[in-house]
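User: I'm curious whether this sequence folds into something compact or stays loose and floppy. Could you predict its structure so I can see for myself?
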Amino acid sequence: MNDITAIILTKNEELNIVACIDTIKAWVDRIVVVDSGSTDNTVELAKAAGADIFYHEWKHYADQFNWALDNVSIETKWVYRIDADERVPKELAEEIISEMRNHDNDDINGFLMNHTLYFLGRFLKHGGSNLQKITVFKHGMGDFEDRAMGEHIVLKQGTTIILKNYCLHYDCKSLNAYIDKHNSYATREVFDYYERRRKLNEQAYLYELAEKTKKLRDGVYYRLPKFFRARLYYWYRYYGQMGFLDGKPGKIYCYIQAYMYRYIIDAKIYEYEVREGK
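Assistant: Here's the prediction. I'll summarize afterward.
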């Protein structure tokens, strides 16, 4: 068809998985779902929608996706990593197909895709809510850096282009699930924080925007005093990046990112220091 395989990592995504598959099944050659032990109907729904199902025990996102690249027998030239709570509009699908054909035999080996978040009844446009990441890449030319949190696809060679159309990031789960997810993210970020301090995980070179974010995180943010830096983070996202223009959903989003993620990271770092007697 279009020489592309879509890979979706799942655990308890019955509210999202069918809608996700419905937006890609008409133009991808194969849909692979790698499940890590769903206790709901995720696997049954994905299989009925036409996906090939695999199981692998969860460690973290990068490990899970890299396992998929090595173990699900990918035969297409391109790979699309898509999350279960993401949707691909028609315009984006057409752009992906067009750009794959345009760059089939050159050194453009990855596509950076913008994502816009639907949160509490509206699409957010401010407050750092729109993310950009590599999602489509040539098989064998990329994999995830070895990180537990904030991971990115690293190209082994070649370069990227930025797609114009946006992927829509929906999440049909509750706000409670969203907060629980960020608590889990905080734990993973603390793990990476200490791995970096011990220099146990090599820092791969990323694309320009991700490199800038990494340098700000490690070279500026984590040099600021604990807890105070989370407040600064809120002020930056809510006022500096104009999160207030997204109304109450924008304020809640910025608050969660700062005080239910960044502040919790500092609390977990503090807890570790207390327990270690530092």
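Summary: The first strand starts at residue 4 and ends at 10. The helical segments are 17-22, 42-48, 61-71, 90-102, 175-197, 208-219, 228-240, 247-275.
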